[in-house]
Amino acid sequence: MYxxxxxxxxxVVLLVALINWIGLFIYLVKTESKLNKxxxxxxxxxxxxxxxxx
Length: 54
Description:
Elements: H1 2-7, H2 9-53
């Protein structure tokens, strides 16, 4: 096992970097989804308040 890691260390580094990028991508997609949901809620609240104020 040690020989494999020693001989192919560049692949281990690339694998770790790939896992980090995938994790960051998933985090950004989830954050964007939550942000869109909040924007829709705020938009609907503004629409509801405009009708009440008039």
